[in-house]
Design a protein that fits this description.
Layout: E1 2-3, E2 14-15, H1 22-30, H2 40-50, H3 53-59, H4 81-90, E3 91-93, H5 105-109, H6 117-120, H7 128-138, E4 149-156, H8 162-172, E5 180-184, H9 192-202, E6 206-209, H10 217-229, E7 234-241, H11 242-248, H12 250-253, E8 258-261, H13 267-279, H14 284-287, H15 292-302, H16 307-316, H17 320-329, H18 334-347, E9 353-354, H19 355-362, H20 366-372, E10 381-386, E11 391-396, H21 399-408, H22 413-426, H23 432-441, H24 444-450, H25 454-468, H26 472-484
Parallel strand pairs: 4-7, 4-8, 5-6, 6-7
Antiparallel strand pairs: 1-2, 3-5, 9-11, 10-11
Helix pairs in contact: 7-8, 13-15, 15-16, 17-21, 18-21, 22-25
């Protein structure tokens, strides 16, 4: 259960969170409080009567020490509670029995980030680059490593398959029997003490797969510094777009041991992809009538652009932008379109969008979203729970698709401005995902690219200042803008 963040005075609303078992859902549905016209004390008393002693005890339960990581231990000591929590909430231990959620091949080929599912089910095309990195980085003898703490980068265009390649490498590591392999989720920072414990108990090099370098650049650099100080052997593999790495990862440049660039698919990789599309009935109307050689040729012609775009254009026979915008136009009702626009405005920044934030902006609690908008946005928006925020999150199929919606649907600068203001009015930076979204939204370079009129940018900073209050990050971006813009427009916020 989660309390909605805003409600009419004297009323407190809540909605049922995802992930509850059917019996639990029915229980809460029967006891659903739509409004309590009472004091906070009355609300607390109602909750007190609704939660059993057994439920209270469950919240205090420690995570199980019977964790897969113990199979890597060279000592008999069990993992600490902090280590198990880290490998439950903040990261995943990559091992031979790693569980994954099932989806459909169609969802993967439409561009959804579906975690381990497409790799486990063999839907992805085996990339030669993944094998190259496995040989040069993972299997490299310890005696040949020049640094105790290493950083390797996979760099490519948006939608080129970087994240899938990163997962492909990690998945192949499960059965290799060398090293301890960890996949990092969206977390505020890495607790170095748990990595130190992990190394002490495994006596192995730790391989960390940490996607989205630009968003996590500060966290990665801090982790490398601390790990180096403690002399913990760790190899970090990350991935990023060319533009974002060049513009936002200066602090990581000198730390990178080697850069691997994602290029075009080879002829054999294209052939493999075409065969998998055929097997899973995902060829699309453009490829179905063609023979195998013609299908391969169609893909080869499209690969001047990135993999995601080529998949759409080769299978559908239309331009990528046209397909995405046409899909948006067909969404009904208009409220569903509005929700999707907001999700895309934020998700293009590659940060999952907290359901509580959407609830505040559109007055649509999560349970109402499931009931009214799940079907209109099916195959367009995904939702999942996040261990860090203990909230549901929404995301578009791919940040590239979200960016197309932002650029091609919000065609007028005024519309983009209103969307920004609406988000900043409701954002709550005490949540990690909201804070990441907020910081990405107010980057001076991002804003000046979107809003050529510096008055709009100044107004957005004023709104952020009113909504967030005194914030050093905002002040820093304001100073950057002052140095590059017309001085008569860029006055210092009054509340500073």
């Amino acid at each position: 259960m989660e309390v909605q963040e805003e409600a009419p005075q004297g009323q407190i609303h809540y909605f049922i969170k995802p992930g509850l078992k059917e019996a639990e859902t029915q229980f809460w549905a029967q006891r659903r409080i739509t409004a309590i016209n009472n004091t906070l004390e009355g609300f607390v008393n109602e909750l007190n009567g609704s939660i059993s002693d057994n439920d209270r005890n469950l919240t205090l339960a420690k995570p199980s020490s019977n964790h897969s990581i113990t199979k890597r231990f060279s000592v008999k000591s069990p993992p600490s509670e902090n280590l198990v929590r880290f490998l439950t909430d903040s990261a995943e231990h990559i091992h031979s029995d790693l569980p994954y959620t099932k989806f459909t091949p169609e969802e993967f080929y439409k561009g959804f980030d579906l975690g381990w599912y497409p790799i486990a089910e063999g839907l992805n095309t085996d990339r030669k680059l993944a094998d190259k990195i496995n040989e040069e980085v993972i299997k490299k003898p310890e005696s040949e490593r020049r640094r105790t703490v290493e950083l390797y980068l996979i760099k490519g265009a948006a939608g080129s398959g970087k994240s899938v390649i990163l997962r492909e490498i990690a998945w192949k590591c499960r059965a290799q029997g060398i090293g301890t392999f960890i996949w990092i989720k969206d977390i505020p920072k890495i607790d170095i003490t748990v990595l130190k414990e992990l190394h002490e108990k495994t006596k192995e090099r730790i391989f960390i797969f940490w996607d989205d370098a630009a968003i996590n650049s500060i966290k990665i650099s801090q982790a490398i510094k601390q790990l180096s100080n403690d002399n913990i052997p760790v190899t970090i593999l990350t991935a990023e777009r060319f533009s974002d790495w060049n513009n936002r990862c200066d602090n990581l440049d000198e730390l990178v041991g080697k850069v691997y660039e994602v290029g075009r698919l080879s002829h054999s990789e294209i052939s493999d992809l075409v065969d998998k599309l055929d097997i899973h009935s995902c060829l699309g109307p453009n490829l179905i009538p063609k023979n195998r050689d013609e299908r391969i040729a169609e893909f080869s012609d499209k690969f001047e652009r990135q993999l995601l775009v080529a998949l759409y254009e080769a299978t559908m026979g239309k331009s990528f932008e046209e397909i995405i915008v046409d899909e948006y136009i067909k969404i009904s009702p208009p409220t569903a379109q509005s929700i999707y626009r907001t999700i895309c405005t934020l998700n293009r920044l590659r940060v999952p969008v907290r359901a509580g934030l959407i609830a505040r902006i559109h007055d649509i609690p999560f349970i109402a979203f499931k009931e009214r908008f799940h079907k209109p946005l099916e195959q367009i928006v995904l939702w999942a729970t996040n261990a860090g925020d203990h909230d549901a999150h929404y995301k578009a199929r791919h940040p590239e698709i979200a960016d197309i919606i932002f650029r091609h649907v919000l065609t007028d600068t005024h519309e983009k401005y209103n969307e920004y203001i609406r988000i900043l009015d409701k954002i709550n930076i005490s949540f990690e995902s909201d804070n990441s979204s907020y910081r990405s939204l107010i980057r001076a370079k991002t804003l000046t690219d979107i809003f050529p009129d510096y008055t709009d940018v100044a107004s957005i900073y004023e709104k952020a200042n009113q909504s967030i209050g005194k914030d050093s990050y905002l002040y820093n971006k304001w100073q950057i803008l002052k140095e590059s813009g017309p001085m008569e427009v860029l006055k210092r916020p009054s509340k500073y």
